[in-house]
Amino acid sequence: MTVTRPEPGTFTGTHVVLEPLMEAHLAELWPAIGVPEVFAGGYGGGSGGLPSDAESFVEWMRGSYLGHADRFPFAVRLVGGVEAGRLVGVSTLGDLDDTNAGLQLGWTAYDPRVWGTAVNPETKLLLLGFAFDSGYVRVKIQADAINARSRAAILKLGATFEGIQRKHRIRADGSWRDTAVYSILDTEWPAIRAGLLERLGQEPRS
């Protein structure tokens, strides 16, 4: 199967809808993810990268997410329930390598109030499905090596741990970050997809 790079659309699940990230989303994401708990796990370069106010946050998000030819960022919005319509996070398919049929699923952050809910597994279900349906054969997922919560969530998906990139990048506070690297292959996707559907209480579709 060859890679095709379609224009990303809106993906709707039972718990979330993923919308291509646009300028209009950025200010709305500030109260959701512009909080110390999110940046403490390594997002945005760690705690030292937390913007001081909404204006700085929007500027940082604009530079980090918008206008990159090799990234498809998505805003994560709740559907259903009393909080339907609230933006609760962002996630991205990036580092698109069409020649070698690989990409990275990352640049992800969620409002701490939805940690441990169906938001992350359904977001991953929708984005992984989009990636593999487009012909990619390898999806990399990574996290700051000290972020035990994110690393546990990646393993719970069924991803394979590949190792630690030591002194991979400099955090916002000047310290070195080691990065834990995981991957999911196209041959592993059917079983992982079934596991995600089971976690979400959904029946697999043929």
UniProtKB/TrEMBL annotation:
Domain N-acetyltransferase: start-end pairs: 16-159
InterPro entries assigned: Acyl_CoA_acyltransferase (IPR016181), GNAT_dom (IPR000182)
Gene Ontology molecular function, alphabetical: acyltransferase activity, transferring groups other than amino-acyl groups
Keyword Endoplasmic reticulum: no
Keywords on record: Transferase
Domain of life from the UniProt record: Bacteria
The name this protein goes by in its record: RimJ/RimL family protein N-acetyltransferase
Organism, as annotated: Rhodoglobus vestalii
